[in-house]
Structure to design on (169 residues):
């Protein structure tokens, strides 16, 4: 048994995959509401693996998910509504996941391109990010309607601004 554990540990170490620190990782978002108000919130419960080597981007990889039911706008009534069918429908789609296809160096850091799956829909997105001391920080803007989140609500803006903070153990 000890030998098997040692082999598994060595394989994980050699592969370069690193676990995400769920406690320190978060996705922050903001979206307009009724054109006069901005709603801010977070998603937590980030899990997955990251293999990132700035000197070997070809073999670097992100496979990350966040718990959709963790949505938190500090308004319990709104958060419960966001978990229902007309928004995130967390009973059917419990995770929001990203899997990278390519990572490239840019003048301001890096850019990862990959598949973002949310609410049963997968789209290719690009996320510019920086990396320092086991922390990735990325930003992007999504159109919620591309993923069928929130239907055609005229009270909720279409564009959602995201800041992703992914900390490795």
């Amino acid at each position: 048994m000890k030998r098997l554990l040692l082999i598994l540990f060595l394989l994980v170490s050699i592969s370069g995959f690193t676990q995400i620190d769920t406690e320190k990782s978060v996705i922050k978002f903001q979206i307009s509401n009724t054109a006069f108000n901005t709603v801010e919130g977070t998603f937590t419960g980030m899990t997955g693996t990251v293999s990132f080597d700035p000197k070997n981007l070809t073999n670097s990889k992100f496979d990350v998910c966040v718990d959709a039911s963790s949505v938190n706008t500090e308004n319990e009534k709104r958060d419960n509504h966001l978990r229902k069918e007309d928004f995130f429908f967390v009973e059917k789609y419990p995770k929001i996941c990203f899997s990278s296809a390519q990572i490239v160096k840019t003048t301001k850091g890096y850019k990862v391109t990959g598949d973002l799956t949310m609410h049963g829909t997968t789209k290719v997105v690009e996320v510019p990010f920086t990396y320092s001391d086991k922390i990735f920080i990325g930003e992007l803007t999504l159109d919620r309607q591309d993923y069928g989140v929130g239907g055609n609500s005229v009270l909720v803006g279409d564009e959602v601004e995201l800041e992703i903070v992914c900390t490795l153990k």
About this structure: The longest strand covers residues 95-106. Confidence is low (pLDDT under 50) at residues 1-15.
